[in-house]
Amino acid sequence: MFTDILLAIVVLLFVACILSGGKSKNYPPGPYSWPLVGNIYQLRKLACTHGGQHLALLELSRRYSSDVIALRLGRQNMIAVSGYEGIQTILNGQEYEGRPWNEFIKIRNMGMRKGITMSDGPEWKEIRAWVVRSLRSVGFGRREMSVMIKDEVVHVVENLKVGGVRSMKPVIAPAVINVLWTMATGKRLCEGPRLQYFMELMERRAKAFDMSGGILSTFPWMRYLAPEFSGYNVLMVFNEEIKNFLMDIINEHKENYTPGNEDDLIDMFLGEMYSGKGAKAGFTEDQLVMILMDLFIAGITTTTVTLDFLFLNMVMHVDKQKRLQQEVDAIVGRERLPELSDRPNLPYTEAVLTESQRICMVTPVIGPRRVLSDTELLGYTIPENTTVLINVYSVHMDPLHYPEPEKFKPERFIKDGVYVPDENLMLFGRGRRRCPGEALARSALFLLFVGILQKFVLLPVPGKQTPTLDIVPGLTISPKPYEVLVVPRDNCTNGTSKLID
Predict the structure, then answer these.
(1) 389 touches 61 (CB < 8 A)
(2) Which tens digit of pLDDT belongs to each residue from 250-287?
(3) What number of CA atoms fall less than 13 Å from residue 423's CA on the CB side?
(4) d(Cα 95, Cα 86) in Å, to the nearest integer?
(5) β-pairing, 76-81 with 387-391?
(6) Alpha carbon distance 379, 26 (integer Å)
(7) Which segments are annotated as binding site?
(8) pTM for the whole thing?
(9) Cβ neighbours, 10 Å, residue 47
(10) Residues marked as binding for heme?
(11) Spelled out in words, what is the top-level CATH class assigned to the domain 2-500?
(12) Tens of pLDDT along 177-188?
């Protein structure tokens, strides 16, 4: 009996070796892929050693002297791409527009190939185009959006006016949520238990997906053998919670829906469901839930964490903060809030925003993409259905483009006193999968960041070590929790001025 079991295991391993082989002559180089598990353990070990998956992939590119690295995670054939040329080809190539449909993405999408982030095909193109048009209709990228964000700046300034030692993330997260919530639902989520519940739900969900995503993506069968250990049960509970939360909002809109009076994203979608293109074109309740999920997951997390990194960099580089505030004082003053129209006249501020995002991009590895047909990339043959990981970090930290890339130097984007955009940066992606929320993200980052620094000085907490740029790795990266001393600028004392100097 034992001999039979052992023989069966050996046969399975042999078959796995055969299945994992058969690579084409021009297939990219990469580490040896072990039967059944592939490269999961090598990649995790490298990520732990170097401080994140983006750094692990960069190390593999260095070891194999190639910008394209072949990996196998469980049953998935993957390539990881670094360097400007290869990444540009992927972001702009239609053959790379697909999305994989592995166990992790199925769970993330509640089992539905819906929404605008993790789906593909004709329905995705139709729905994504509709979302972009509809967001514009409710003020996306126009003055209405600016007014909404400025209202949130007022709330944040009021929250911070007493100063003292604070963590910035809990202060700015509600502002980001309320801007998105207003565009989607027509009103603020406001303060209180409902907002707090939603913030905690999104935070817990993000942590759970960070911990469980890799396991379930690589070993999907773990959901059956070890649903608790793999995190599957926890993820399913979070999915149910957030779906119920969003359905409550959708049902409120359905009860109050009036044809011809659609003034927010949900009402506009209901209009398509009831009297527009309908279910045949993909306008269903499930689709609406996933659209809202995509908007909130992408918008809230990335914008909030990007702001958190910005404030951290200002505390670490108080001299840069002072120069920025001098520029804001000269152009905007302190009596009125900044406007988006001020942006072209604040080149150093723009450079600070860009430099922080270059060094601290929340999603240093973007994707994943699915190759829709056999193709070639940098001389390598890439088969159909290969999953592609895009290491944008490799471009943003390339010393050939950015000398001393680890140093925070906003001046690198200033020429003759003018801010010069950098074509190498890919802060919001490119091509047809470029972030549809770019206008909102850029506007929210500018108005919230400048509005806060117009009113307050952010300093290291006296008696404590100045925070450092330590990151928490995961599906996205974020700074380790830190505190700052918030000082209202109108109340700055001589002592505080000396600290700034």
Answers:
(1) no
(2) 999 999 999 988 888 999 999 999 988 888 889 999 99
(3) 2
(4) 13
(5) parallel
(6) 7
(7) 435
(8) 0.89
(9) 18
(10) 435
(11) mainly alpha
(12) 888 888 888 888
Tokens of residue 325, six digits: 């505030």
249, two tokens: 């909002």
Predicted confidence (pLDDT) per residue in 364-394, tens digit: 999 799 999 999 999 999 999 999 999 999 9
Could you tell me the CA-to-CA distances from 242 to 97, 203, 235, 266, 283 in Å, in that order?
Answer: 28, 12, 11, 16, 20
Sign of the CA dihedral running 136, 141, 143, 147: positive
Give DSSP secondary structure letters for 388-418: EEEETHHHHT-TTTSSSTTS--GGGGEETTE
**CA of residue 77 relative to chain centroid, distance:** 24
User: Count of H helices and E strands in the chain?
Assistant: 18, 13
The pair of structure tokens assigned to 15 is 């078959």
Do residues 175 and 449 touch, judged by C-beta distance below 8 A?
A: no
Residues 186-216 have pLDDT tens digits of 888 766 677 778 877 777 777 666 544 566 6
Tokens 């955009």 locate to 421
At 343 the pLDDT is 96
Amino acid (one-letter) located at 285:
E
Beta bridge partners of 69: 80
82 touches 58 (CB < 8 A): yes
Q: Do 413 and 403 meet the contact criterion of CB atoms below 8 Å apart?
A: no
